[in-house]
Task: structure prediction
Amino acid sequence: MDKALIYGQALAQLRMRARLSQDKAAEAAGTSQPTWARYESGESRAFLDRLAVRSKVVRALGFTLRDLEAEVELLATDMSYATEDTTGPGLSASAGVDLTAFNRAGLQQVRIDTNELSPYVRAGAFAICDTERPPKPGEGVIVRLRDGRSLPRFYLRQAAELWVERLVAEESAHRWVTETLSMADIAGVYPIVLRSESE
Result:
């Protein structure tokens, strides 16, 4: 994997841990959102190649270069996902929407039964997940467990264990909880590529 992309994904990871949007993170670092997005995507090598830029950007998030390097190490040593052959029929266009790109094997429709991804996907909605593409940090995913359960979550990262996030509703507020799931229990982690409104 390209080193600039790994550093960009590590930066995205730190930004999500800081609970900042790209806009707010860019503002804190004294740069623009498009520039920040290029850092995270690895498109701009300035974040990788210039220590002063890297240091300024990471400090703006409240982290150190050591924190960034720890994220880089985790991403660089990501393990392969244990996957099963769960491909099914593709989709056909309906209601005047062109779904040509989604008419292929490897896509699966799942019904979301909880509000753990709300408002990204609400209970009662359907989502299409891609069983052939690995997830990116911050993406909604379906975590398929070997016991047959499916967990809607937000992907954070993977090293020896899988790190995901879920939203917990409490009496007065909502809060994010980071979970660590054992890779021994996971059959696959599939990014959500299309989602519907709840019924």
The CA atoms of residues 18 and 61 lie 6 Å apart. Confidence is low (pLDDT under 50) at residues 79-98.
